[in-house]
Amino acid sequence: MREQVYPRSGFKRATRYVVYRMRRLPDQPHRVARGVFAGFFIGFLPLPGLQFLAAWGAARLVRGNVLAALLGTFNTNPVTTPFFAVLAMTLGHWIMGIEAPLNGKYIGHAFGEAGRDLWFNFLAMFGPQKTQWDGLIQFWNEIYIPYLIGALGPALILSTIAYYVTIPLVEAYQKARAATAQDRAERRGRMRAKLAEAAAKLKRRSEKGSEDDDDSPGTP
């Protein structure tokens, strides 16, 4: 539970690892960037438990790198999500014309009522009670839908920024990696040439020594 809320290595190191993995993806920079765009966009949407599946579908839709899309969904975490959620719900309420106080008490009450309805309806399947949907309907209309609608605009903007940032990063990394690989190949070539030259010298010395032994006078 603690690792899910705050990684032991910290979010800074986790972010560096995700960026490192994205740069090393063996694919064209534009395909990686499209995958990042798809993953970022899905990561901002309220799709609990479905983000990986949705990111896979979005990556296939835009013909992007699937692994980059899956890594892109890590753009949200327990620290940043509450701030983005409040922003998205505020924007969604403004678009939909909903007048409700977006504070911790209101949001907590909506989550509590929805959770209470879910638990009550689960128990109702095994008893004579009738299901209750008032809390779930309120949560759907005043929390989830405004969140979804309000998140679309910021998610699109931030995902587009991530797309244009990813392309030069991947291109620069791939060029540097190719240059390093070429340099290593040249050094290995020079090393093999030196070893071959040294082996040839040893062979010539050995052959010369054999000739000197053959020319020497034999013993009586």
What proportion of the residues form beta strands (DSSP E)? under 5%
Q: What's the total helix number?
A: 8
Q: Say what oligomer this is.
A: single chain
Form type: elongated
Helix content: over 70%
Order of helices and strands: HHHHHHHH
From the N-terminal CA to the C-terminal CA, the straight-line distance is 93 Å
Main sheet record? none
Describe it for me?
- The chain has 220 residues and is an all-alpha fold.
- The protein is 78% helix and 0% strand.
- It has eight helices and no strands.
- The radius of gyration is 32 Å and the shape is elongated.
- The mean pLDDT is 80.
Labels describing this entry:
elongated, single chain, mainly alpha, 220 residues
Q: Helices, strands, pairings?
A:
Layout: H1 2-5, H2 10-23, H3 29-44, H4 51-62, H5 66-72, H6 81-96, H7 104-124, H8 134-215
Helix pairs in contact: 3-4, 3-5, 3-8, 4-5, 6-8, 7-8
